[in-house]
Amino acid sequence: MAEPRSTEKAAKPKTASRTLADLSMAAASAAAQASTTPAAPQRDKFGRAYATGKRKNAIARVWIKSGTGKMIVNGRELTVYFARPALRMMINQPFQVANRTAQFDIWCTVAGGGLSGQAGAVRHGISKAMTYYEPDLRPVLKSHGFLTRDSRVVERKKYGRHKARRSHQFSKR
What we know:
alpha+beta; Ribosomal Protein S5, domain 2
């Protein structure tokens, strides 16, 4: 004769019965441990941090090291290469926000685009290099939007149009 079936379900092992609340608590504690662990600075053998910044069609390669605030862009001083004060102000914004004015020497090469795009690329590269040199500055620079690459570029010209969207002038006759 067959044995009568039990109405009780088989007990699951305790290790497999984790609730959603347990999993979320474990994930939160793991995230807290990861956020409290400071990132290590990324520097080369000369004590420099390197980063690439981009804006429009311009690409800037930036090297940063501790110093007196000297900035060289494509072999020229910053005031010579970027003559407009608005561009120089834009490049110096990451230093002012992080309270690191005249504490870093900058050497960068920039190519492509115009002066405005190049200044934006240098600012982006400086901000990224500062986070590699001193990882504690990342929240400050990120909150001001200096680490985000501005992805706006010029729209391409379409056929049958004068420019990207400008159409031919209408002629009634």
